[in-house]
Design goal:
With 632 residues, this protein is mainly alpha-helical. The protein is 62% helix and 5% strand.
Length: 632
C-alpha cells in the first residue's frame, strides 16, 4: 500500500497556489501540468512532493510546506523558488489527490534530491580540493626535480593551453614575443567588441569575453603590466556602448568587470609611483558609466602617502579649471577631486571647491551636506535658502532635496512649528497620502491635528493654501512661489486617504466623482477601490473586478488573460463569501461560451478554483472535474 499524499494538499487550492506563485507563474505551471510534463511524482519522507518536470530540459523540483504552514519550493531551474515547475508538481499532486490515486514514497537516495541540493547550495564545500595558495604551491614545486617539473608543466599545458603559452614566452618575454602576446590579446578583444548586424542582434545571447580575460592574464603573468593597463583602458572605452545595447541580464557587464579585476592586479604590481597608480584608477572610475570599474575603489580607499594624493588633487583641479560644462561628468570629477583633497589632508580647500561649485554649477546640496557634517548649521541654512531660490524653477528636484535638509535641521532643533509648516508646504507641492500622514504626526505633537486636518482636506478639494485660512494653527506661514497647475479636487489623493482611513463611503464618493469627471480612471485605482469597499458594498466591488477582467480579456493577448485571472479570482472569492456560487458559475460559463474560440483564455479559466472543489475546472457541459495529466 502506497503512502497517502502529504497532509497539506488537503487545504491547497488553485487560489492559494496563484497567490503564492503569482498569477503568471501559476498559469504557466498549470499549463505544464495539463500538458503532462510532470513525471515520477513522489512523496518525500519530510512530507513534500518531489517530481521531474520536462521544460527546456529536465528539472527536479520539490514542493513542500515549511514550519508555520508557509508554502515553499526548490528547483534545479534557473528561476529558483516559486517557479512554474513547482506549481506544475503541486497541480499534479492535487489532481492525484482528487482522483484518490496514491503517491509513492521517494527513495532516501533519490538522485533528484541530490540535484536540488546542489542547485540551491552551489557554494557549499565539495569533494574537490580548493585552489592552493601561491605560497603552498611554491613550497611543493621547490621539492620537485627538473624532470618532474618539466613533466608537470607539460601536463598542465594539456589541461590549460594558456599555461603552455606562458611557458613558451617565459616570465620576461623578448620584445618579439611580447609584441606577439599583445597582438594576440588585442585580436581577441577586437573580436569580442564586434557589434552584430542589427538583424542578428536578437539571436546573439552575449559576447564571449573569456578569451580576452585569459589573454590579459597571460600578459600579466608574463610581466607585461603596462600593456595590460593600456588594453584595459581601451576595453573600458570601447565596451560602454556594448554594455548599454546588449540585453543579456548583465553578462557582458560581469565579463568586462572580471577583465578589470586583472587590470587591478596589474596596477598593484606595476613599477609606477603611487600618484600615477592613483590617477590611473581615478581615470578608470571616471570613464566608467556602468560600474564595471568598482574594483579600483579597493585601491583608492587604501592608505597612500598624502603627497601622492596631493598630486592627484592638483591634477584633477587643473582639469576642473578647463572643464566648462555642467552635469554628471563634471559632478563626478568634482567628487573625485574632493576625495583626493580629503585624503591629502587639504580639508580647507574642499570647502572652497564646494562653494565654487555651488555658485558655478548649482551643486548646493554637496556644500550643504558638508557644512552640516562640520556642524556649521547657520551657514548651511544660508546656502540652503540660496540654493532653493536658484533651483526653484529650473531644478525643482534639487530644490526639494535642499528643503529636505532644512526640514531635518528643523527637526534636530525640535522646532515643531516650523517642521509642521514645511511639511504642509511639501503636501501642497506634491500631495499624497504619505505626506498627509507626516503632517498628522507633527500636528499631533503640537496637539493641533483637529484644526489642521480640515485645512488639508480643503486644499485637496478647493486648492486653497492651508495657511490662508484664519484657523491656520502654526505661527509660521508657508511660502510657495512655484506650484504645479493641477485640476482640483485632487481625486487620486482623496481616494488614497479614504482607503487609508478605512472609510469606504468616502472611497466610493470620490471614485464616482473621478469616473464622472473622466480623470485617472485606470485599472490600478479601480482594483484598490474594489478591495477597499468589498465588505461595505460587495456588489460594487464585484462590478469593478468584472469590468477590469473583461477589459483585459478584450485585449486578446495571453498576458492580458493572466491579468484578467487575478481580477476574476478576487471576484470569485467575494461571490463565494456572499453565497453567490450559482451566479459565479453562470458568469464563468457565459465567458466560456462567448470566448470559446480562444484556447489560451480557456486554459486561464481552467485555473480558477470553484466552490466546493480543491482545484477544479469545468468542461463545456458545466461538469466539475479535476484536470489530470495528459497521456504521453
Amino acid at each position: 500500500m502506497h503512502p497517502s499524499p502529504p497532509p497539506f494538499l488537503d487545504k491547497l487550492t488553485f487560489d492559494i497556489l496563484a497567490a503564492w506563485a503569482g498569477e503568471a507563474v501559476f498559469q504557466r505551471g498549470l499549463a505544464y501540468h495539463k500538458a503532462g510534463k510532470v513525471r515520477n511524482l513522489a512523496r518525500t519522507s519530510e512530507g513534500g512532493l518531489l517530481a521531474t518536470v520536462d521544460g527546456t530540459r529536465k528539472y527536479a523540483t520539490q514542493f513542500f510546506q515549511e514550519e508555520g504552514e508557509k508554502l515553499a519550493s526548490e528547483c534545479t531551474c534557473p528561476y529558483g523558488p516559486r517557479c512554474k515547475h513547482a506549481v506544475a508538481a503541486a497541480c499534479t499532486g492535487l489532481a492525484l489527490l482528487a482522483a484518490k490515486t496514491s503517491i509513492p514514497l521517494a527513495a532516501a537516495n533519490d538522485k533528484r534530491l541530490l540535484d536540488i541540493d546542489i542547485a540551491v547550495s552551489p557554494d557549499e564545500t565539495s569533494l574537490a580540493e580548493p585552489a592552493p595558495s601561491p605560497q603552498a604551491l611554491e613550497a611543493v614545486l621547490k621539492k620537485l626535480s627538473k624532470e618532474q617539473l618539466v613533466t608537470l608543466m607539460i601536463q598542465a599545458a594539456a589541461l590549460a593551453p594558456e599555461v603552455g603559452a606562458l611557458c613558451m614566452h617565459g616570465a620576461e618575454p623578448k620584445q618579439k614575443d611580447a609584441l606577439a602576446l599583445v597582438k594576440d590579446a588585442r585580436k581577441a578583444m577586437r573580436k569580442a567588441l564586434e557589434v552584430p548586424d542589427w538583424e542578428d542582434y536578437h539571436h546573439q545571447a552575449y559576447t564571449d569575453y573569456e578569451p580576452v580575460r585569459k589573454k590579459l592574464e597571460i600578459l600579466r603573468l608574463a610581466g607585461l603590466l603596462e600593456e595590460v593597463l593600456d588594453l584595459a583602458l581601451e576595453l573600458l572605452e570601447d565596451s560602454q556602448s556594448q554594455i548599454e545595447m546588449y540585453d543579456d541580464e548583465g553578462q557582458t557587464h560581469d565579463d568586462i568587470a572580471q577583465c578589470m579585476d586583472i587590470a587591478l592586479q596589474a596596477l598593484r604590481d606595476v613599477d609606477w609611483p603611487a600618484h600615477k597608480k592613483l590617477l590611473w584608477a581615478a581615470d578608470a572610475v571616471l570613464t566608467d558609466d556602468f560600474a564595471v570599474c568598482d574594483c579600483f575603489w579597493a585601491l583608492l580607499r587604501e592608505k597612500h602617502p598624502q603627497e601622492a594624493w596631493s598630486v592627484v588633487a592638483d591634477t584633477l583641479s587643473g582639469r576642473l579649471a578647463q572643464h566648462s560644462g555642467k552635469g554628471f561628468a563634471r559632478s563626478a570629477l568634482v567628487d573625485m577631486a574632493i576625495y583626493a583633497l580629503t585624503e591629502a589632508g587639504r580639508d580647507a580647500e574642499v570647502l572652497v571647491l564646494c562653494k565654487h561649485e555651488a555658485v558655478h554649477s548649482g551643486e548646493y546640496l554637496r556644500l550643504v551636506e558638508l557644512l552640516l557634517a562640520n556642524g556649521s548649521e547657520q551657514e548651511a541654512e544660508e546656502w540652503i535658502h540660496k540654493g532653493i531660490a536658484g533651483a526653484e524653477r529650473k531644478e525643482p528636484y534639487a530644490a526639494d532635496r535642499l528643503r529636505s535638509c532644512l526640514l531635518e535641521l528643523r527637526k534636530k532643533q525640535k522646532n515643531w512649528d516650523a517642521v509642521l509648516c514645511m511639511q504642509t508646504e511639501d503636501f501642497v507641492r506634491h500631495a499624497s497620502s504619505e505626506r498627509f500622514k507626516e503632517c498628522r504626526r507633527s500636528a499631533e505633537k503640537l496637539k493641533v491635528w483637529p484644526a489642521l486636518r480640515p485645512l488639508l482636506m480643503a486644499f485637496l478639494i478647493e486648492r486653497k493654501f492651508p495657511w490662508d485660512h484664519d484657523a491656520w494653527p502654526c505661527q509660521n506661514r508657508g511660502k510657495i512661489s512655484v506650484l504645479r497647475e493641477e485640476k482640483h479636487p485632487d481625486l487620486y489623493t482623496l481616494i488614497d486617504l479614504a482607503i487609508d482611513e478605512k472609510n469606504p463611503a468616502e472611497v466610493l464618493k470620490w471614485y464616482d466623482l473621478q469616473r464622472k469627471d473622466r480623470r485617472g480612471y485606470g485599472g490600478y485605482c479601480a482594483d484598490r477601490v474594489a478591495a477597499a469597499v468589498q465588505d461595505f458594498a460587495p456588489e460594487r466591488a464585484i462590478a469593478l473586478w468584472k469590468q477590469l477582467a473583461e477589459a483585459q480579456i478584450a485585449l486578446v493577448k495571453p498576458k492580458a488573460y493572466v491579468e484578467a485571472a487575478s481580477f476574476l479570482r478576487k471576484m470569485g472569492k467575494l461571490m463565494r463569501t456572499y453565497n453567490m456560487a450559482t451566479q459565479w458559475d453562470a458568469y464563468i460559463q457565459a465567458l466560456r461560451g462567448e470566448h470559446r474560440r480562444r484556447p489560451r483564455l480557456m486554459e486561464v479559466l481552467d485555473g480558477l478554483s470553484l466552490p466546493g472543489e480543491r482545484a477544479v475546472c469545468q468542461d463545456g457541459q458545466g461538469k466539475m472535474h479535476v484536470p489530470l495529466p495528459k497521456e504521453k
